[in-house]
Amino acid sequence: MENTTRPLFTLYIVWHPSNENGGEVADVLRRRFGRDRHRNIAGDPGLSVIYRSEMAPGELVPLSIDWDEAETTAVVVLVDSALAGDTAWSNYVRELSRNAQTRGRLLARLFPVVMEPGGRELQLEEQALRWDRWEESNVDREQRLVSNLTYEFSRMLRYRLDLHRRPEIAEAPFPDYLKNFQMFISHSKHDDDGESVARSSRDWLHENSALSSFFDVYDIPVGLSFREVILHQIETSAVVVLHTDSYSSREWCRREVIEAKRRRVPMVVVDCLRDTDQRSIPYMGNVPIVRMSPDQQDRIGIVTGCLLDEVFRTYLWRCRVEPFREAYSNVLFTARPPELISLATLPGHESDAGSAIVYPEPPLGTDEARLFSEIAPNVRTLTLTEWMEENP
After folding, report:
1. Do 379 and 356 contact (CB within 8 A), yes or no?
2. Distance (Å, rounded) from C-alpha 335 to C-alpha 119?
3. Sequence-ordered list of residues with C-beta below 8 angstroms from that of 20, at least 6 positions apart, any chain
4. pLDDT at 163
5. How far apart, in whole angstroms, are the C-alpha atoms of residue 48 and residue 65?
6. H or E element: which one contains 212?
7. Between 183 and 210, where is the model more confident?
8. CB-based contact 244:191 (threshold 8 Å)
9. For residue 185, what are the β-bridge partners?
């Protein structure tokens, strides 16, 4: 990284002072992306969310935006008819658009959100999110906006990480940036619910999200190895586990969960149990769990939002620890607290001096830490803060 002292990500939110909903929407975004929520992943500075809705002293528009403050900068503009009809504000936003485009490398982006039809008059080059066309309650609109922006912010971080890992290139290929994130839908076909919920999830994604999906019934090319395709798709996806009654009894379901954990990909478990599971897979723990009735299936949007949150957290973490990865080849950096399966993914050997598993705050509890020390006495488990104090 060129400058690891800068924040990883800063979000600006711009709205006209006459926009009655602007402040409420901005507060929703601040709660979702604000400093405290991701402090343990992004470090002490956390993520800055900065408002631009008040005019600077003696000016007709807000203060300018410092595009170099952070490694990655996103500007969300809540566009209504008042902003589009105010010449000074329209020029201010158009200047933001020009500045974002001239920064290059896709590390600075402007995201217009059209709050009402009159906002279209601003006519920016950037593709806008069309709040005005979403036919839901304001609460559901807010959830949809957060999910859409989380997806795009994750794209920016993925791109940033790609540049870190390939310093010889000035700019990563544009098609790499455009590549969609994929949801791997892990499910059992051996009860009445697994495939039904998986199909509903796939259909919902295609209608409501930029996420693509991997559903083995449709997405394994004829003539290719089932095993090779599955393992490749897990490694390049975020995984949703649909935990129905027969899930844990299926060999391939168990393998998919284990491989997802070994590859440390973002994962969410959806509790769709109707009755009982005689032996739940222990490796389904240590990740978010969302309850969804197999009959109603009305929380797919919440599941998707939770998964995107995991994707965003994972890329924040990867960007933060990337400067250390190559120099400390015997250290495993994991975005979630370690668990015993983490020992199977250590980059070196457990007996290597200095082997460690490093993870975000807070520290493991006493009982968990003792278990690690008993099973792998040569492997230390440290928060990133603790580890950096020893490796300044």
Report:
1. yes
2. 39
3. none
4. 85
5. 13
6. strand 212-214
7. 183
8. yes
9. 240
- CA 205, CA 163: separation in Å to the nearest integer? 29
381 pairs with which residues across the strands? 357
Residue 227: what residue type?
A: R
Residues whose CB falls within 8 Å of the CB of residue 235, separated by 6 or more in sequence, listed in order: 259, 263, 265
Residue 3 zone, left/alpha/beta (φ > 0; ψ -120 to 50; rest): beta
Task: Name residue 179's amino acid.
Answer: K
Task: Check residue 3 and give its pLDDT.
Answer: 41
With contact defined as beta carbons under 8 Å apart, do 310 and 288 qualify?
yes
The residue whose two tokens read 């003539």 is 223
Residue type for position 230 = I
Nearest to 179 by CA among 106, 281, 239: 106
Q: What is the pLDDT of residues 70-113, one digit of tens each?
A: 889 999 999 999 999 999 999 999 999 999 988 867 899 999 99
- Residue 11 identity (one-letter amino acid): L
Tell me the pLDDT tens digit for each residue of 350-382: 556 678 999 999 999 999 999 999 999 989 999
Type of residue numbered 26: A
Tell me the torsion sign for CA atoms 179, 347, 386, 390. negative
pTM of the entire structure? 0.92
Task: Quote the tokens at residue 308.
Answer: 């995107």
**pLDDT band at 2; cut points 50, 70, 90:** very low
Q: Residue for token digits 């290597």?
A: 352
Determine contact, residues 87/48, Cβ cutoff 8 Å: no
**DSSP label of 270:** E
Cis status of the peptide bond prior to 338, with omega within 30 of 0: no
> What digits encode the pLDDT tens for the residues 300-313?
999 999 999 999 99
Element (H, E) at 291: strand 289-291
Residue range 199-226: average pLDDT?
A: 83
Look-up of token digits 């990655």: 72
